Amino acid sequence: MERPIPRPASPERGWIDFLERAHTKRLSLEDFTRVVPIVAWHHRLGPLHITDLLLGTSQARSKYRLDSRSYGYVEVLLTKLRIIDGLSVLRVLYRYSTAHNHRPPRTLSLDEARQVEKAKRLSHHRPTKVERWENSYIQEEFFFKILARTLPTHIAAAGKAGQIVLLLGDWIQLFTDVGTADLGHVNNPQSYIFGARFALMELAAAAFENQRMQLVLSHPTQKALRKRLAQRLEAFIPTVKIQSVADAQIVTRLEAFRTQVLPSWDPREEGEPVEEASYVDTLIGLDNFQVPLVPTINSRAGLYIYLNAALTGRPLIDDHALFGYLHNRYQGDLQTTATQLILAAFDVLANAVFRNEGSSMGHLLKSFVVNKVPLILVSLAQSSSAVYPFNAEFCISQALNQVDTNVFPTLSGLFDMNNNSSFQDSVRQDFCFACQLHGLLSSQAIETLLGDITYQSLPDEGRYVKETLVQSCLEDLEKTQKLIGELDNMNGNAGAAAQAVVEVLVHLCRNKETMSLKRLCTHLSSKPLSLDILLLFNNPQTILHPLCDVLDNWGGYDEDQGEYQPVYEEFGSILLLLLSFVYRYGFTAADLGRSGDSFVGKLLTKGQLAGPVSELTEQEVSHMSGWIHALFDTEAGGLGDDMMAACLPQHFYLLLPALFSHIVLALSTGNLTEEMVRGGLEYLVDVLLLPSLVPAIIYLSNSLWVDSRSDQPQVQRAVIRVLQLILRPHSLSPEASSMLSSVLNIVAKPLEHALRFYQRQEPKSQAVQPLLLALKENLSLPRRTGAADNNELELWAQTNGPSNVSVGVSTVQQTIQNLYQWAQNSPINGLPPNAAPYTHRQILAALKILGPTYLLTSILQDLRRAEQETPEAAPYAYDVITAIICAPDVRSTLKDIQTPLSLRDILKAKADDWKRIQKGDPAMAETVVRLFRRVEAQMMPPPPPPPNVVGGALEGSDGLAMAMAAQAEQQAANHNNMDAMSLDTAGLDGLGSAAGSVVGGLDLGDDMFSGLSGIHGDFGADFGPWDGTMDLP
Question: What does the alpha-carbon distance between residue 172 and residue 626 come to, in Å, rounded to a whole number?
Fold first, then answer.
């Protein structure tokens, strides 16, 4: 019997079968490129249909997101083989975009309604519901960028160019609608829309600037298309959240196309009105624009906001910037400056108490009040003059009389307090005694201020002098360990101790005394709260650059090197301190000034990535093999000097991700038994190699961020088992236990997130909870990057406004209203209501999520509303908003590299554009210019030092007094020497108060404590009091 001839498969079925096999077998791009032309020849199918099979949801296994292999397959078909085209990709992406699900309902115009009705009449079948992706923004961003690069090949035909323009207009309208929608919680897939939106802007700008595209658009028959495109761009651009210079550049290109290129193709018809700037308008600049006066008020809230921002992340108390801001704000009135500074410092600490910020934040804020503020007051005293006298006792008394005794009680009130925290119960008296230590108060004044006789006294060692401390520590480094313990003290001496510790650290780095440096770094890395105090009194670069230089320039071994294990211990301890700083404050390689070729640069940028073995060099493969045998081959004799002699510490630390990748793979496949892995990891949880667990655990954490249901689950289980062996070792020495705690302080938070993700994927697993318990103590130590936690974000996102996204605009506006209402109700004298709850993290989160343009626009609208509805509150609203814009930004980098656009940058752009704003909204133009002028006045940089500066400092004065003196001289010149702050400290006998004289000078520049002498005389070169009275518990 003759067998029937099989019918050939339909073209669609042929492609479906091929693509299904390719995805199942994970066909490589090389094989796909070789085979797919044969499939295309046998199964002729249009480019739109092929694209739909690849980018649509009909053949997808999961509707959440596109299969990772599809990205490469589409790119091959689009750019190499050109079997599909850009128009098809744009159409299919648009059809299945997640943005449709987030698009709010909108009323169709008459023309749009007619087009819909016409389409329904012409359709011969019932429309089917499109099943769209749950998260398509990542693939949209990817393909938008590819199309932007390869655009000329996709618009060769005029017909396709026109269709691409229409489709881009639809995309712009879609993202415009989504941009005004409520995006809900930040953890939703909508948070990825910002990358897709920026990629669409790149594609649109490239398309509209293309010559072929412009030739099509400029044709006289395309006037309706041009008008439609201009309208959609006009609606789209205000929804863009500008977060970087690149964003601003793309927006500028699109706006130029809308306002300059498109109108040039449509000449004005006769009788059509034209907008022209009058001759007078062209002569009026921003400086000459007259706006109605709103009184300037320096409210209690202004400096409260500034200090909150300066201390919400890493400490940003730059002395010169702070004194410049204070001088600009209070115009040289030293006593008002001092009073408001003390009051604001106590307000910030009280706010932390009310918000339950925790002991970590409280420790820093209390140290700022007790140890930093008195030093600033001393510098203010040195800037006093006959025009602006300074009475320290009067200022302190005025400020403390306004501090709520319910929060910061006097001595008698301490016994009546319940549930008070350790950082609020003694702040008042600690501050007073610190002021006495620095000669700002007398003992009689303290009894008056505290309302009782106190048994507290000045520290026995008197007032520290930095140079004396440094000299003593260099003679006996054990005293440095004691001095690090002094950083936690609240007695006014922590500043000198902090600068002395840093100077010793820099000295050891410069001289490459690595053995002594190891002990110092190990001690500091075990006390993360002490790092906050170091940065409160030191520039981060002063500490980090020497550490990076030591690690980057760590040379090879000496020929007579006896032992190699001490070298690894010293290198690891120094690296651990650097990583503690990097993690706690969010520093990057660029912040540290490290290039990608340096060891530190490589470790911070690629230290958590494990590439394939084929990418390793021959030397790295040799080192890898050596370490595997040394750790896990019992017959090899264990880890000895031979291995460490062959591999420098830098090479070992860069090899860790690849090493742990092999360990996990070997454990999951049975090539390594659990006992063998346990034995090898025992070397890594010892002091010798313990710091290496930082990049290792970060790599293991990243390995858990995969879907265990679609990938190999045994690999994730092996990762969990390795983490169990690391986090719960059988036995540790006290030194190793302390160092492991330092390591976990760094990696605890990212590891917790990864473990909880794995727990959601494998809810039946019982292995995760013990690991989370092992991290519990380390998780209580928050980072200081200025980032908000999830609980705060969810609280701020709970808003009913129709146009609020993530961190709701209305919550920011409500916070600002609460601040200026509190400031308005605060009396000049007497106890005001409690400070309005505030954290600058809310502004930083809004800047990141909403963008500075959107946020500032909302703030300006609220400010104008306050001017119109409650004119009496307008001065306070201006002061609050000015302080928010002028506040230090923790997002700023340590190096002069590109930083995100700030509110001040956007405000300046709006002020420069005041004429256009005035045409549509004159009141808003006045508000913008008025606010801009106030911001610039408070942010005015200090003038150059006066001519009498010798060697960078005034003779007989200090660095900050120098800066304020220079400002005072300039102001005196402008006011005919009648309304200024002059500086004459050479003959300064006292502060003009009953407190007595300020002993010694104060250098708050590079050498803050160089001029300080002890309260009972000089501290003494022999550093005698260390021997008896400075032993730490």
Answer: 57
